[in-house]
Amino acid sequence: MKLLKWYADEGRDLPWRRTKDPYKILISEIMLQQTQVDRVIPKYETWLKTFPSWKTLAAGSRSDVLKLWSGLGYNNRAVRLHALSKLVVEELGGKLPVSEEELVKLPGIGPYTAGALMAFAHNKPGKCIDVNIERIVKRYSFPKRKKEITKKEAEEEFLFLFPKNKATDFANALMDFGSMICTASNPKCDDCPLYDDCKSRGERNEESNERVKKRQTTFLHSNRWWRGQILKALNQGLQTEKDIFAAIEGDDKKSFTAALAQLRAEGLLSGSRRISIRE
Ligand code: SF4
How far is the centre of ligand 1, averaged over its atoms, from the C-alpha of 158 (Å)? Predict the structure, then answer.
């Protein structure tokens, strides 16, 4: 699969990608919920040194947990994690369940996190579809209809695309792909490994070319354009109104005269029969 090949070459090496331990993966997922990757990395590593397992976390005091969490913000995430650790240790035999349906019943675990646990800890397709993945799936699988595609449809397509036995790599690959290639604005279609199969390939480039063309058309023969053309002709040595107008590729005499009068009124030009740019 082209995406997996791309990921093998270009994917990021992140500490939580080197483990299959559901506890460690959940810690990373909760930390990443509202904090950027580079701020999470050192916190994740320090956290695991102090609380390497559900058991150690459950045995920790709330103040120790909050102290360690400090700097990541949204402290209620840490409080919920701490509460979850007690539940896992005391009621679930020290292990998280292995199904999305069971996982979402636990406090602090929503559908996205449950899907991420399935994909990253168990190498199984999970509904870890965030805005980036949703965008990629809509672009890749649905031609020009992407605005009408619901999240549910994108989710079904996403689950359909999951390759057998490669769920972890696939989900990781999409995360990196969304931040490096198929970005929200200006996707790099020309460098995209999925270009040949993508239903929206180049669509964004076309849209942006159209936008540029529209901007250019709007600018052409605008007052600014006439002013620029007059100054350009004067710089080329033309001096009479007639010669200047003849040299410009435009036949709107009224706009030409208005722009010329404006430049004069602003004191940028001198002379009436022989016009020049004022020194
Ligand atoms: S070709 Fe463009 S729109 Fe399609 S997946 Fe690649 S970057 Fe995204």
Answer: 15
Pocket of ligand 1 (CB under 6 A): 139-140, 181-182, 187-189, 192, 194-195, 198, 200-201, 204
Two tokens, residue 161: 């695309």
Residue nearest to atom 5 of ligand 1 (CA): 140
Distance 149 CA to ligand 1 centre (A): 17
How far apart are alpha carbons 278 and 208 in whole angstroms? 40
Q: Assign 269 to helix, strand or coil.
A: strand
| Mean pLDDT along residues 53-68 | 97
Task: Return the active site residues.
Answer: 29
Each residue of 233-267: pLDDT tens digit?
898 888 899 889 988 888 889 999 999 999 998 88
Q: How far apart are CA 75 and CA 79, in angstroms?
A: 6
- Return d(Cα 137, Cα 161) in angstroms, integer: 9
The DSSP result for 152-171, as a single string, is HHHHHHHHHHPPTT-HHHHH
Q: CB 183: neighbour CB atoms within 10 A?
A: 15
Beta strands in the chain (DSSP E): 269-270, 276-277
